[in-house]
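Write out structure tokens for DNA-formamidopyrimidine glycosylase.
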Amino acid sequence: MPELPEVEALAGFLRGRAVDHAVSGVEVGAISALKTFRPPPDALVGAVVVDVTRHGKWLDLMVATATGEPLHLVWHLSRAGWVRWTDQLSDRPVRPGKSPIALRVRLDDGSGFDLTEAGTRKRLAVHVVAEPTDVPQVATLGVEPLSDEFTQDRLTELLAARNQQVKGLLRDQGTIAGIGNAYSDEILHAARMSPFAPTRSFDADRTATLYAAIRQVLTEAVEAASGRPAAELKDAKRRGMRVHGRTGEACPGWDGVPCGDTVHEVSFADSSLQYCPTCQTGGKPLADRRMSRLLR
């Protein structure tokens, strides 16, 4: 699933190509992806793209209509969705149910992009709205972790709000927007903390360490993704991971010195997390079940 760094890069990629172009066509390939019906997708036709921004993991293409009223095409790529840009789209219309294309947006110079989704579990969500906050999941997003509003004091408040595993807090979009499974693993490895550590166990020093790790990991990932074509972002993300998705591989350790341990995994029903016991849990492996109480 694309997270804050990749979604930020996708917004910049589309912004650099779509802004000031008029939408010449919108074709729906998967009606299940469309979560709103008024206004309809073709209300975007003729409108000029004025910006492409990000809200957490949501992308937002803003257009100005002929009446001057803005409309927003807002979408969440979920686990298997992606943006596929084409400099010259085929004239052949999208055939519903015949390809992974969920939505196609054509621009006035013949270019455009497809929202695609692989696999059988269709979770890609597309909304056409007057305001991004008309999408409930956008309206309830938490603080952006790279914004000025996300201070160490704010993190202290979030940790103390209720007792939960710190990995769950990092992934909760209503608390902190944009961090998912992959970057929460990377942040906790950088902070050298157990993913199951209770949030109310954090003192000032541990909070400062976690705060610094959040800012560092995300800032470096945004910089690494910035300017890359959409087609390269997935592979670039995988290459940049130190522990996530690297079960069984040697932990890279710190300062160029491997710690000597291997990356371990905890599996859940439909996801998994990766961590290093030596770096994060005092050498103790975590039980491979959701409610592990081995380490707090």
